[in-house]
TrEMBL record:
InterPro entries: Puta_zinc/iron-chelating_dom (IPR005358), UCP006173 (IPR008228). PANTHER family: UPF0260 PROTEIN YCGN (PTHR37421:SF1). This is UPF0260 protein GV64_20270. HAMAP family: UPF0260. Pfam families: CxxCxxCC. Belongs to the UPF0260 family.
Length: 149
């Protein structure tokens, strides 16, 4: 008898804290600055990352204190599930909330923490830190192929 993985049998609200945290594939996309079109509600991702994002590992440099350091840092919680539409289509939190399977490159499925980078899903190697970009220039850094509604 093979046990099904927790992400296939539990809803987000049924997961433990450790299970919830393990859903993050460490792609770094949620740490990118985003611009929203107020007329269409479309969200455009930029190639500009939060100053706390380590652009090589795609992990936060100070995850436990991120909200205190970056006041507008998004902390994903259950109360925000209805707003997960802004997350990338590849994001496990969004996929689970939409009752869709995780991708084969997701570390929980592949068993490898580097599969997200190998698959080209992470922001590793192609993003700019916000410390190097003027906020008024963010439109110049919109990534045309990443847009969500």
């Amino acid at each position: 008898m093979t046990l099904q993985p927790f992400w296939e049998t539990k809803t987000l609200s049924e997961m433990t804290s450790d299970e919830w945290e393990s859903l993050c594939d460490r792609c770094g996309r949620c740490c990118l600055h985003k611009l929203e079109d107020e007329d269409t509600d479309e969200v455009y991702y930029t190639s500009v990352a939060c100053r706390l994002l380590d652009t090589d590992s795609c992990q936060c440099r100070d995850y436990p204190n991120r909200k205190q350091i970056v006041s507008d840092c998004t902390v994903l919680t259950l109360k925000d599930v209805k707003n997960f539409h802004w997350l990338p289509e590849t994001c496990a939190y969004r996929l689970i909330s939409e009752e869709k399977p995780l991708s084969s490159w997701h570390p929980l499925v592949s068993g490898s923490n580097t599969s997200v980078h190998t698959a080209g899903i992470s922001v590793k190697g192609w993003v700019h830190s916000e410390v190097d970009v003027n906020e008024e220039d963010l439109e110049d850094f919109i990534i045309p192929h990443i847009m969500v509604r």
